[in-house]
């Protein structure tokens, strides 16, 4: 460790931290030296005493050149490199180095490949080309806006590479943050001929699915094909999920299973490169993928050959194209809020301190509770995210994105993402977790639920819907019931949930439009519905809890907003009370096809619920004005909820839909005007004939039309 460190924190401002073990931390003078004999005295403008060190604020030249080496020397004769630190967070730095070109990364052609890396604080960059056992270095030249460039002639289609970046007195070998692929475990970035990838045929999607027409199904590539019972010829890979014609007993599995449900969108848990699974030995580890490493590189543990950079890229495209063949849109779960390890991240390796947020004391912001927060508000950080979004849609055909911890990102960036995605696909879905997180960013700029009004057409997971309908989800609140799980005192609260939280007093208004409410009762996070009910409904037998599971499912599909299903919710999946199973392995996380077969009647019930929603547009109202106009909500004696949609549906020849929710242990009897039909009973079936006398069985949701 050096006896002191020197940081360039602004134009003309240098901060020195000197260890007290070195001359008591005292120095009366400092000066800066540079190339070609450059020297300048520094003025001490402030001294701050700390327990183990002393900090000096120094004023120096404001016009130091970027791309040059500088040393700070103190009175006892010791020198250290001047490190570019918080200066990269200044407006002047952004104005000087914001690069608007679209050529960063490795641009391949048969005759040559152009390499471009944004590294404005670097003093040199060497490109290392790897071809078999041969390694060749090439000195890159510094160009406009701090971009280092090299053009290498020849066909580099199968070449891999790294960069040697000299910055802040150190030379760091790093992967390329703009690379499209890599060797196993991200060791080397890869030159990719995109035309090879585009040869894989995509399939046109027949109709647009906008807003509330969507039904999202969340699944992990690994989990759905991990079990030997899945019937796939291989397991846990892109190729396994691409396989058609698989089944277990008399139910489809894998791709055919998802297709059979009737959902419109498949949300894949992270499929871009994550850090903690050894791609050469994926059986030795497990992770959901919220430990991001490279944002443009598909995860190698899901590929047939992690060492071959083309395998993972082709296989991910083939999977997405296969889902499109079955008219399933694909939303990718993306993790732009943090990286797994700052110090080994290509962002920190190329431009230290720029891509992450720091607090006023110079420490990394930790609003994610993962050790760092990505600085999406920085111009080049925002540009990077937009580039990734555009490339994933263009190269793979991705249809939308779910943002992990979206509240860490900033509002302007999220709006720019929406605009970028919808220019490519007008029906692109953008949604995420709008939780309030303690990141170092002004509250009004965070992409949270509280700021939803600033982000039109961007959806948020609606924790109000989840907590009111199901009950609180955290481990310390797992015994708390929701309305459907037995707390009838929440009957008035559930009215707001059913109406996508878009109605004003006396309801709880949370969203501007219905398509902003993502109604998820279960996600990969926290306990499954079944495990939750084992706690909060532990006095009930299995058959009773299964009936409540049906109620939860149909309630989600008749509610305004966008329904979201986590894989397994439709067959009472369990994680054996492991509420945070992100690294718990296949035994806990894999789709249990035997359990699916045992609970196949509930799967069929779910299919019918999805079909019901698709048939009746009254459940999919697109505007708040329509919800205000057509929806009427009330609570009857005993906590029974009535939910009417007075919507004239010429196709189905009806003028009103009536949903009656009875989470009590008693049957309820009502007499209405003549002409009602039951289109969805406790088993998900329609019943013949018209009637005025209606029985709503215990623990059921009845849907009637007239």
- In what order do the strands lie side by side in the largest sheet? 17-20-21-22-23-24-25-26
User: Average pLDDT across residues?
Assistant: 97
Largest sheet: 8 strands, parallel, barrel
How far do the termini sit from each other? 79 Å
Percent helix range = 10-25%
Helix run count: 17
State Rg.
29 Å
The total strand number stands at 32
Indicate the proportion of strand residues.
25-35%
Gross morphology is: elongated
Give the helix/strand class: alpha+beta
Contiguous uncertain segments of 5+ residues: none
Topology (SSEs and partners):
Layout: E1 4-10, E2 13-19, E3 30-34, E4 39-49, E5 53-59, E6 70-74, E7 79-84, H1 91-97, E8 105-108, E9 112-118, E10 124-131, E11 134-139, E12 141-142, E13 147-153, E14 160-167, E15 170-174, E16 189-190, H2 194-198, E17 216-219, H3 221-225, H4 238-241, E18 247-248, E19 251-252, H5 254-261, E20 265-268, H6 309-325, E21 329-334, H7 346-350, H8 379-396, E22 400-403, H9 411-424, E23 429-432, E24 459-461, H10 463-469, H11 491-498, E25 517-520, H12 529-536, H13 542-558, E26 562-566, H14 586-589, H15 593-598, H16 600-615, H17 624-630, E27 631-636, E28 640-645, E29 657-662, E30 668-680, E31 691-696, E32 700-705
Parallel strand pairs: 1-7, 17-20, 17-26, 20-21, 21-22, 22-23, 23-24, 24-25, 25-26
Antiparallel strand pairs: 1-2, 2-5, 3-4, 3-6, 4-5, 6-7, 8-9, 9-13, 10-11, 10-14, 12-13, 14-15, 14-16, 18-19, 27-28, 28-29, 29-32, 30-31, 30-32
Helix pairs in contact: 8-9, 10-11, 13-16
């Amino acid at each position: 460790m050096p006896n002191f460190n020197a940081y360039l924190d602004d134009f003309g401002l240098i901060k020195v931290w000197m260890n007290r073990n070195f001359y008591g931390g005292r120095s009366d003078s400092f000066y800066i030296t540079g190339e070609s004999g450059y020297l300048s005295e520094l003025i001490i403008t402030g001294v701050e005493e700390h327990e183990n060190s002393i900090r000096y604020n120094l004023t120096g030249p404001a016009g130091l050149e970027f791309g040059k080496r500088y040393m700070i020397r103190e009175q006892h004769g010791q020198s250290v490199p001047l490190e570019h630190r918080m200066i990269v967070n200044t407006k002047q730095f952004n104005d000087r180095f914001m690069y608007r070109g679209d050529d960063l990364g490795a641009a391949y052609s048969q005759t040559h490949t152009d390499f471009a890396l944004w590294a404005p604080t670097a003093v040199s960059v060497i490109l290392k080309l790897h071809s078999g056992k041969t390694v060749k270095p090439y000195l890159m030249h510094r160009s406009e806006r701090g971009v280092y460039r090299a053009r290498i002639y020849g066909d580099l289609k199968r070449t891999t590479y790294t960069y040697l970046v000299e910055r802040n007195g150190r030379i760091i070998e790093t992967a390329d943050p703009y690379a499209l692929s890599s060797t196993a475990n991200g060791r080397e970035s890869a030159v990719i001929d995109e035309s090879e990838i585009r040869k894989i045929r995509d399939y046109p999607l027949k109709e647009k699915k906008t807003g509330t027409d969507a039904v999202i199904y969340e699944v992990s590539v690994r989990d759905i094909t991990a079990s030997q019972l899945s019937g796939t010829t291989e397991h846990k890979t892109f190729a396994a999920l691409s396989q058609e014609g698989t089944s277990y007993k008399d139910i489809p599995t894998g791709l055919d299973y998802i297709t059979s449900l009737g959902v419109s969108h498949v949300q894949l848990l992270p499929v871009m490169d994550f850090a903690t699974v050894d791609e050469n030995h994926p059986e030795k580890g497990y992770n959901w993928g919220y430990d991001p490493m490279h944002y443009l590189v598909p995860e190698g543990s899901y590929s047939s050959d992690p060492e071959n950079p083309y395998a993972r890229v082709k296989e991910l495209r083939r999977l997405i194209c296969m889902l499109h063949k079955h008219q399933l849109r694909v939303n990718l779960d993306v993790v732009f809020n943090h990286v797994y390890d700052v110090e080994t991240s290509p962002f920190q390796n190329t431009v230290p301190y720029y891509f992450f947020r720091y607090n006023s004391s110079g420490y990394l912001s930790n609003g994610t509770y993962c050790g760092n927060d990505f600085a999406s508000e920085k111009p080049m950080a925002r540009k990077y995210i937009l580039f990734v979004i555009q490339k994933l849609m263009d190269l793979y055909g991705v249809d939308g994105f779910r943002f992990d911890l979206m509240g860490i990102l900033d509002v302007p960036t999220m709006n720019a993402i929406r605009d970028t995605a919808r220019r490519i696909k007008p029906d692109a879905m953008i949604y995420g977790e709008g939780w309030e997180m303690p990141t170092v960013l002004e509250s009004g700029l965070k992409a949270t639920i509280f700021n939803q009004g600033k982000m039109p057409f961007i959806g948020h997971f609606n924790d109000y819907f989840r907590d009111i309908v199901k009950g609180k989800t955290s481990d310390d609140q797992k015994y708390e019931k929701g309305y459907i799980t037995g707390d009838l005192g929440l009957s008035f609260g559930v009215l707001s949930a059913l109406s996508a939280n878009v109605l004003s007093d006396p309801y709880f208004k949370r969203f501007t439009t219905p398509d902003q409410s993502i109604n998820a009762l279960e996600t990969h996070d926290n306990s499954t519905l079944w495990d939750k009910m084992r706690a909060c409904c532990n006095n009930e037998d299995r058959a009773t809890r299964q009936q409540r599971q049906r109620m939860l499912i149909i309630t989600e599909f008749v509610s305004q907003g966008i329904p979201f299903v986590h894989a397994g919710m439709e067959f009472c999946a369990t994680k054996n009370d492991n509420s945070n199973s992100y690294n718990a392995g296949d035994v806990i996380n894999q789709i249990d096809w035997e359990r699916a077969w045992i609970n196949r009647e509930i799967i069929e019930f779910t299919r019918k619920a999805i079909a019901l929603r698709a048939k009746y547009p009254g459940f999919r109202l697109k505007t708040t004005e329509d919800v205000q106009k057509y929806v009427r909500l009330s609570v009857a004696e005993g906590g029974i909820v009535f939910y009417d949609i007075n919507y004239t549906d010429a196709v189905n020849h009806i003028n009103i839909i009536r949903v009656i929710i009875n989470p009590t242990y008693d049957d309820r009897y009502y007499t209405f005007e003549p002409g009602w039909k039951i289109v969805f009973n406790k088993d998900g079936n329609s019943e013949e004939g018209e009637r005025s006398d209606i029985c709503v069985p215990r623990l059921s949701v009845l849907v009637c039309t007239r």
